[in-house]
Amino acid sequence: MEESIEKVIYDETDKRLKEMGAPEYQFPEKADFKDVIWMAALAGVSSLLIVLCLMGVIQ
How far apart (Å, rounded) are the C-alpha atoms in residues 34 and 27? Predict the structure, then answer.
């Protein structure tokens, strides 16, 4: 019998919280200014492509 999605989610959440609570867990580095610039640039390019598609320039 298949597990319910709720049980799967709770089990996975519990597993990940235990992993992150371990003393040897290394948290990822914080995003710096360069990362923020890349995110903004990618969001801008994506928005431009969406607008061009809506205008019919890109088909």
Answer: 19
